[in-house]
Specification:
50 residues, single chain
Length: 50
């Protein structure tokens, strides 16, 4: 999945656990890893389909 990066100007407090939880759940269920890539314009999350 690829999305345009749109950094928020006003960042509210966040636990920052969303991506961490996704990675843990995918690893637990499929024994696969989640890969992420970030450039100045694009944020990409790569997950194998099962």
């Amino acid at each position: 999945m690829k999305n345009d990066r749109k950094p928020k100007e006003n960042v509210k407090d966040s636990t920052g656990k969303g991506l961490t939880n996704l990675k843990k759940r995918i690893r637990l269920l499929t024994h696969q890893t989640v890969e992420t890539e970030q450039t100045a314009d694009i944020f990409t999350v790569m997950v194998e389909l099962v």
